[in-house]
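Example 3.2
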Amino acid sequence: MPRGAAPGQPPLCVGRKDPSPVRLSVVIPVFNAAPFLEDSLRGLQAYLDRRCPDHEIVAANDGSTDGSLELLRTLEGEGFRVVSSPTNRGKFAAIRDGMAAAAGSCRVFTDADVPFDHSALPYIERLINDRGFHLVVGDRTLPDSVYHESQPWTRRLSTSLFRHAVRLLVTGGIPDSQAGLKGFRADVADALFPLLAETSFAGDIELLYIALKHNLAIRRIPVRLQRQGPSTVRPSRHAWAMLRALTRLRGRWRRGLYRSDALAALAAQRYWEA
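Structure, written as tokens:
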């Protein structure tokens, strides 16, 4: 008998039978997050145990030096795995490692402080596993998003200008490239993440660029901020580095470095040959 949610509760992770016994993998990149890491991961694990039993958490340590790895080892066990790099290579290098280790038919990455409402995770899982979207991305600009963050006007302005530039040059109808909540079908993750060359925060833009170039089916969802750890991204400081990354993306596409027969096959729409 399929599991169901209690009245008034969000649905559990149920649906069609998948080849993988793990329906949802949550990948968490970790770098020097010891002050808040245990609370955020234990809260996430408790929620998923109740709402999405067929899950795993994959923590990808990125050369932490503050005891984060030792803390992760204490949590390691059934449904919680750790992959670790001895050196700090960048957020997206850690995410790539975590995605490669993940076993779920739906694979989601989010930040170490797990900032968004946990109920987004089973929703993303259903959109991926049951409705077949290739990617599901959180978007803080959608009307139902709740994202209260106190920022000086200079940062709000630089963030707005950066988003506009990225949307104009790369992501088109996806105005928020940087929300730390993105989900992928397993076959998409297996084909897409090995193509990524950016190891820092520009990786968000790179993966969307590749997905859009291959015409993958992307669903945007609103996000609800529930907690927030310290951010290391400063648009005013990192904007030029990210804008330089945009030129690298176009160069790699022209050189064929983002071409993928697997992604092209997933998005094939040669209806005239049917």
